[in-house]
Design a protein that fits this description.
- The protein is mostly helical.
- 85% of the residues lie in helices and 0% in strands.
- Helix 2 crosses helix 3.
């Protein structure tokens, strides 16, 4: 129920920022072509994670879901680093 407003707000904000940047650069914005696919992939992964967080909050409750969400990425990063 929150996902649509959450993602719509992010989409409209980033669109306005890009339009403002394009106006400032006089319709010649600098965009690194190699980073576009990586950015889309990262955004997709982030969107899936946000949806999973919303589902976890709904099913588990905030008291249980928040510690998992806040410590999980750190644990994965530490294991990846080892």
């Amino acid at each position: 129920e929150f996902a649509m407003s959450h993602f719509a707000g992010i989409f409209f904000s980033s669109t306005c920022i890009m339009l403002f940047y394009s106006i400032i650069k006089r319709n010649r914005p600098f965009i690194e072509p190699r980073s576009v696919i990586a950015g889309l992939f990262a955004g997709t992964l982030w969107g899936i994670a946000q949806c999973a967080w919303f589902a976890a909050n709904k099913n588990l409750g905030l008291v249980i879901a928040f510690p998992i969400i806040s410590t999980g990425p750190g644990v994965v990063a530490n294991l990846w680093g080892i």
